[in-house]
C-alpha cells in the first residue's frame, strides 16, 4: 500500500487551511478530505480571474466550478506535464521540454512544433497563447476544422451538394462551426433525411391507394370545411325558415362598416361569409354565383371531382346528397392526405425534395455524412491545439485558483483574493474587502448574517455600471449613510464613481460601541432642543403676526373696546403668583434630589472612581457586550455565500484582521502640522477648574476634610 500524501496546514480565520506549497499537493488533491476545503463551489463570473480559464475548468458549462471539476483540472494538467511543480511556478509560456513523455504528451509536442513552424518560429523552445490563438484562427477557416460541423462552402465545387446543405440549414436550423458560419452536424443531417424518407413513403402510399382519385381528393379537401359549413346552414334554414336571413349574409349595416375601406374578397372578414346565400334545400353553385373568393376552388372541385365521379349531368350545382356521395368516393384518399407528414421538409414538396436528394435518399445522406466524417477526422489536430491552450492556461492560473478555493491563502496572506473587487475610498478610510454583487437586495438577505457593517455602492464609469458590497471594519459609522459618495478602484486600477445605496448596520469595534450610547443621547437632546426651538419660533412668529395685525387695524377699532383690550393685555403681562410658587417648589425638589445624589456620591470617599466606573459601565456596558458578541461572530462566509460561493468553513473576521481591511486616514511620518487659524476655542480647562472647585466646596461643606485630616 502506498503511503498517504503528507499535507501542510496553516490556521487563519479560526479554520485550519491546507497550504498548497508543492506540485504534489495538486496531484493528490482528490485525497484531501473535502470537509477541510474552505470552499466547495464558486461562480465563473464576478471574480478577478481569467474568465476563459474558468470556462475551460467548468466542463458542464453551468457557470459554476465545483470541487470535482477543480480536482479533474488538477489531474488533467499533472498528467500532461513531466513535473507538477511547473504548475506552481506558473508562467505565460509553456516549455515543450516540460510536456510529459507519454504518447499524448508527445502528440502535444508535435502539434506545438507544427504551430511554431507555421508561424516562422521553428527554433522556439516554448509556445504562448498568441501563437495558439493564431493557429486556432487558421484551423477555424480550413475546410475541415475538426468541429464535426460542415457548412455549404465545405462542398466546394459540388453545387448540388452545396444547395442540399443550405436546405438542411434552412429546415433544421443551423449550428455555428468554429468560424461562426451556420452549418449542420450529424444529428441535423439524419433528422432531415428521416423527414425526407417519411415524405417519400407517404407519397408512394398515395400513389398506390389513391391512383386517379388523388386530384379529386385534393379538390375536395381544399373546400371541405366551407362546403360542410354551407350545407349545415341550409339544414338550419330548413329547421327554422326565419334563420335563413341571419345565416346567409351580413346585414346592410354590417356591410356598410366595410364600405369605406379598401375591399378584397379573399381577406377577412369577407372570406368568412358562406359560399352562397343560404336557403332551405338549396344546392351549392359551382360557378359565378358562388362567393367570389372561392369560385376558383369550386370550379376545380367541379372539374376534378364532381363531374368525373358523379357524372356530367350534375352541371354547375351540387346538392347535399351529391356532396355526401362525393365524400364517400374520396374518403380513403382524403384520409391519406390528412396523414401528410408535418414539418419544414415536407413543406418543400416531394418534387423539389426529389430534385435535392436525387433518386436515392441513402446516397445523398451518405455524401453529407462523409463530409462530416472527414471534418471529425481532422478534429484530432484541433483538439490537440485546444489542449495546448488549456494546459498553458492551467499552468498560469491553476495554482492561483486552488489557493483561493481549497484554502483562502491569498486572502489571509493579504495577496489579493479573487473575490475582492477592489478598494473603496469613502469617509476618510479605505475598504479592501469589497465583492461584486448582481442584486443588492437579494445579496443583503444572506450577507446580513455576516455580522459585518456593509455598505452597498452603485459604481459607474462612463456607461459601465456595477454594484459592490464593501465591509467597513474600522473607524466609526457616524457619517455612513445612503447617498454618500466615494471613489472605487477596481483590481485593474480603474476608478469608478461610487454612491452608497444601502447599508447593513453592525458594530465595527468595541470602542465605537462604548461611545454609541452617549452619541445617541446627544443626538436625542439635539433633536428635542431643535423641536422645542422650532415650536417656540413658530409660536413667536404667530404672536408677532397677531400683534402686527392689531397694530395695522388700531385706527379702525372702536374706542370703547380699547379699554378692555388694554386691560386684557395688562393682565396677560403680569406674572401669576401661583405659577411662580409652583416653579419654585419644582426647582427646590430637583435641587434636593441632586443634592441627595451628590451627597451619596461624595460619601463613597475613596470609592468615588469605582462609582464613576460603575455609572459608565451601566451606560456603555450593554452596547459593548452586544458589540463584543457580534464581533466574535463576524464572518466572511455569508458575504461570499450571497455572491454564489459555497463556503465550507467559518471564516472569521477578527478585530485584528478587520483593522487591516479598513484603514483610516493617518498623517505620514515626519509630517509637520501647522496651526489651525479657525480652530474653536476649547472650554475644557475652565470646565475642569470649575469641577474641581465644586467638588472641593462640597467636600468642605460636608466636613470631609475634617474627617480625613488628623485631630489637632
Helical residue percent band = 40-55%
Shape type: flat
Termini separation comes to: 96 Å
User: How many helical elements?
Assistant: 27
Question: Mind summarizing the main beta sheet?
Answer: 8 strands, antiparallel
Secondary-structure-based class equals: alpha+beta
Q: What does it look like?
A:
By secondary structure, the chain is α+β, with helices and mostly antiparallel strands. It has 27 helices and 19 strands. The strands form 6 sheets. The chain has an 8-stranded antiparallel beta sheet. A 3-stranded antiparallel beta sheet has the order 4-3-18. It has a two-stranded antiparallel sheet with strand order 1-2. α12 crosses α13. The radius of gyration is 46 Å and the shape is flat. It starts with 8 loop residues before the first strand and ends with a helix. 28% of the residues are buried.
Quick take:
54% of the residues lie in helices and 11% in strands.
Task: Describe the secondary structure blueprint for this structure.
Elements: E1 9-12, E2 15-18, H1 23-27, E3 39-43, H2 51-57, E4 64-66, H3 67-79, H4 85-89, E5 93-95, H5 103-118, E6 126-128, H6 129-140, H7 159-172, E7 175-176, E8 182-183, H8 186-209, H9 213-239, H10 243-248, H11 252-259, E9 284-285, H12 295-310, E10 317-318, H13 320-338, H14 344-347, H15 350-357, H16 361-377, H17 379-402, H18 409-412, E11 422-426, E12 429-431, E13 434-437, H19 440-447, E14 453-461, E15 464-472, E16 485-490, E17 495-504, H20 510-552, H21 559-573, H22 577-602, H23 608-633, H24 637-641, E18 646-647, H25 655-661, E19 662-664, H26 684-701, H27 704-708
Antiparallel strand pairs: 1-2, 3-4, 3-18, 5-6, 7-8, 9-10, 11-12, 11-16, 12-19, 13-15, 14-15, 14-17, 16-17
Helix pairs in contact: 3-17, 5-17, 6-17, 7-8, 8-13, 8-16, 9-12, 9-13, 12-13, 20-23
